[in-house]
Amino acid sequence: MLQRDCLLEWRNILSNTLFGLEVKGIKTKENIEYVKELLKKYNLYDFKNKYPSELSGGMRQRVALIRTLAVKPKILLLDEAFSALDYQTRIMVTEDIYSILRKEKITALIVTHDISEAISMSDRVLVLSKRPGTIKDIHKIDFEMENRTPINCRQSPKFSRYFDCLWKELGVDEKNKISQERKKYLKKVKRKKLLVIATQLIILIGFLVIWEALANAKIIDSFITSQPSRIWSTFTHLTSNDLLKHVKVTVYETIVGFGLGTLMGVAIAIILWWSKFLAKVSEPFLVVLNSLPKVALGPIIIIWVRIRHASNHNDGNFNFLNSYCARNAKWISKNRQRNNQNGKNF
């Protein structure tokens, strides 16, 4: 049994409980009657023709339990199987499950975070550590009762002693302690992360060095592909002049554009929700707009709205462009002189 009931919504309750029998090919009359008896025992027989959507969370989990028990398993794995139930139903269900497990002699492995549930239902409690999960300790549970039930166990004086023992082992003080195995694991993870980062940096530095060397050796045309030293020079020039101004303009336009887009989207959604006619009319146009890449729409919108900010941008943009062209002209002139000296035509 899992944390979620995983019921099939298109099947009724009886059909859901018989699903395991169908899969295993043992849907016999005898097994069907056994399932019906389980439905009666858990007060679900009157809902056998209902569908999962018509049941509460607790009832759905009980249906999942009956589906599991229908195949009469020898080993039953319960993974937080009762966590979806309310407290009262949870205690009653654990009582019934315990009696069924004892009567049918079914071995059960229960995964739970509920200490009381673990103590009252178990013969042994295995306490696991943090990741990587290891068995920290195994506690044998023995209440020395002839007619042991989960409710009787909760009333036993031994219950509080078992509870205190497990609580200390899972307590806050223990959480602050790190075992040697976990320390080794954390060091290993840290070394792997550092190795990955170092390898990435080496590859990046090697790529930049090769790029710069190829550009200096004229193997690649740095006028087209540029080179790291020129990019750095341009960046430092930009940071000392107009970078802050361009950043402010970009942030301002991003915020304004996001706000306007959100308001327009909400307004259009309300209009289309209010008028089915408009929704039908605009549907093909919205589908086409949605299928277009936003990268293609961006330049069109910029051309439409650029006039408003043209005067604010032109001075800074042209100054930067003139400066950039002037520096490139100097670089081209130097390379032309150098190549002429070497007897080459640039």
Spell out the key features of this protein.
346 residues, mainly alpha, two-stranded antiparallel ribbon, 15 helices, extended
Could you characterize the architecture of this molecule?
With 346 residues, the chain is mainly alpha-helical. Helices cover 68% and strands 6% of the residues. The strands form 2 sheets. Strands 1-2 form a two-stranded parallel ribbon. The protein has a two-stranded antiparallel sheet with strand order 3-4.
Furnish the topology, listing elements before pairings.
Layout: H1 13-17, H2 19-24, H3 29-41, H4 57-69, E1 75-79, H5 87-104, E2 107-111, H6 115-121, E3 124-128, E4 135-140, H7 150-155, H8 157-169, H9 172-175, H10 180-216, H11 222-225, H12 228-239, H13 243-274, H14 276-291, H15 294-341
Parallel strand pairs: 1-2
Antiparallel strand pairs: 3-4
Entry summary:
By secondary structure, the chain is mainly alpha-helical. The chain has helices at 13-17, 19-24, 29-41, 57-69, 87-104, 115-121, 150-155, 157-169, 172-175, 180-216, 222-225, 228-239, 243-274, 276-291, 294-341; strands spanning 75-79, 107-111, 124-128, 135-140. A hairpin with a 6-residue loop joins strand 3 and strand 4.
